[in-house]
Amino acid sequence: xxxxxxxxxxxxxxxxxxxxxxxxxxxxxxxxxxxxxxxxxxxxxxxxxxxxxxxxxxxxxxxxxxxxxxxxxxxxxxxxxxxxxxxxxxxxxxxxxxxxxxxxxxxxxxxxxxxxxxxxxxxxxxxxxxxxxxxxxxxxxxxxxxxxxxxxxxxxxxxxxxxxxxxxxxxxxxxxxxxxxxxxxxxxxxxxxxxxxxxxxxxxxxxxxxxxxxxxxxxxxxxxxxxxxxxxxxxxxxxxxxxxxxxxxxxxxxxxxxxxxxxxxxxxxxxxxxxxxxxxxxxxxxxxxxxxxxxxxxxxxxxxxxxxxxxxxxxxxxxxxxxxxxxxxxxxxxxxxxxxxxxxxxxxxxxxxxxxxxxxxxxxxxxxxxxxxxxxxxxxxxxxxxxxxxxxxxxxxxxxxxxxxxxxxxxxxxxxxxxxxxxxxxxxxxxxxxxxxxxxxxxxxxxxxxxxxxxxxxx
Length: 459
Known about the structure:
By secondary structure, this protein is an alpha/beta fold. Helix content is 29%, strand content 24%. Strands 1, 2, 3, 4, 5, 16, 17, 18 and 19 form a 9-stranded mixed sheet that branches. The longest helix is centred in the middle third of the chain and has 18 residues, at 215-232. The radius of gyration is 21 Å and the shape is globular. The two termini are 35 Å apart.
């Protein structure tokens, strides 16, 4: 394909709304959006009847990540291919510090895992799990290198959890640097007590995961995090929110003018806690943290997206196979690696089960899967938007087609999907990364080393 080409005649979801328009791409960038009379050296790609959106930006993934005795089954190679097939062209992965490691060394190690192996563009958040004396100076160093977000945990005691004093100190410093602090908000102390009670009572199966993490454990932690952020006069971003109470707390803080924001995930919007009652060990497929919730919580999350209490839908792609990985917790749910695959299905599921039933407008769908993630984490307007000068990361959706989710045909390197046999209205037809075709109708056709590391600005 020549460097200059036009996606012609599609329905384009751009910053100024939905319009019938052409998109001119030149040397990997968007040159023009509107009516384009192409010269003879410009190739025309007919997308009449299709919807053209910016490439998805997934800001919560875990590639090649050791956790709870296992390593996620997708590395940057397989996970990035799956992302491309599903309409995501940029992801931000969590790089985890181990005890004794300095943040610049963590960044270097995790960058080596992805460099030359990712098929799409990528960056990192740095998860601080073990504070040390020179942490503040090292935070400044990695921010200078383009890593403008950090993460802390309020759960997973003995593995990643920080106390409130540590959280407050990191929150204050990240704000001073202009960086964003992401928080996993669950009350780890209470969860551990409840989990111990479950096991002592003989409830060792996957249902114990749900019962030991009631909604209150998330809501309390979110409210505590907001209080700490107010004390520090700092912004805060809550990851993977799952409850009505947490959504309401974030909405209240935002209404008061506080710089609080949050995301939810595809599985919290679409899957129900009843899945934990699946007989046998099959329910381990759905052991994610926080756990899935009931209908009233899902409805609150959809409402929160529509009303801008929540601004981002991520995948929290954290795949562990049932065979040999999830089965580590066959006799004790506390040992089931927490996580599920999702990067491949985030964009199509949210279109098919968000836009098509009227839960989200087409414009809001694009905002939460692409534009706001890019804006929130220092990638906008290079990513997440169709406008002159932006990278030509584009997805062509066919609203008249459909697909069925099957583990045996998906690109994700996992032996199951939580959306097995779901019918999905609409189909991702073509995906472009910086003007180059990387996926077509469920097949990856790009270069395995086509992705680039993205240094980010403070949001």
